[in-house]
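task queued by scheduler; priority normal; single chain, no ligands, no partner chains; default sampling; output format set to structure tokens
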Amino acid sequence: MTPFAGDLFDGLTSRAHPVVARLEAGRLRVDGEEIALDVPLDQIELAPPVGAARGLIRLPGGQELHSGDAAALAELAHALPGHSPERWAYRLEGRLLYAIAALIVSIIVVFAGLRWGVPAAAQVAAHTLPPVLETRIGSESLALMEKFSLEPSKLPAARQQALTRQLAEHCRRQACPPYRLLFRNSPMFGPNAMALPGGTVIVTDALVKLSRHDEEVLAVMAHELGHVRHRHSLRLALQSIGAGAILVAITGDIGSITDIAAGLPSLLLQSGYSRDMEREADAYALGWLQTACIPPSRFADILGRLDRTPSDTGLLDSHPGSRERAQPFRVAPDC
């Protein structure tokens, strides 16, 4: 092996000692001013150079040999016994096709984790986390919305009470998840309804005015109860945290996950449910309406009107097409 230069640190002081090292008969010899080391290869640990950084050879007694001679360190890596991950990484880095293949595999793994792994984990976690956590997230979301996008309802109190009473009566006749119904005015959201973590269901004044029958409003409420039943809002929040955790693992930026956790209420308002979540909520609403003896077509009717009404976020965002969603409600038999 061709001798290579480096700096030896004795582990006692910060002084760098210029030395020359070489392989001889399965041992590493290191020579310099008043320095003569003869170390068996099985007592050596090699951290190959990465980028512009120098390679590091760990020697017994806390000593270290630093060198920027990549060719010599590669030869030393081949001579070392064992199969350390660092050696394999160094070899792979030197082969472009292997590096490209590793990059493609990494992208596939990250994509699969975001697309399937994180949602699956969020679904399991959503049904195991304590309800107090979900309630807290919902309360913070509601407080944020009331600060920036929601106003007190302008509907007559009698109208609000009538709709609240109708929903409560139907829920006494069939199983409904725990909920709290609120009416709010919102020029930003327009005709809309949404379910927050913890069971709060918000219905906007514009949605009530858009309806032509109370049963249409009840049908929308049933859809939102489906989100509450399946804890979709909490799952969406957990998916955001999971995606942030993957981002931290890739970038090493721990601040990213902190920012996501602090901005969970905002994420809940800006992110639409997945198509699978919407189908789950629709299926719940369809069964609910049939049990309540409300024509399922009521949901299809108001959905068609919502499809023609501009809205920043709500029942149609990130959802399957309204015609696709309305079809099961139009063909389903009444009770």
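post-processing summary
- Residues 264-270 have pLDDT under 50 and may be disordered.
- The CA atoms of residues 9 and 15 lie 6 Å apart.
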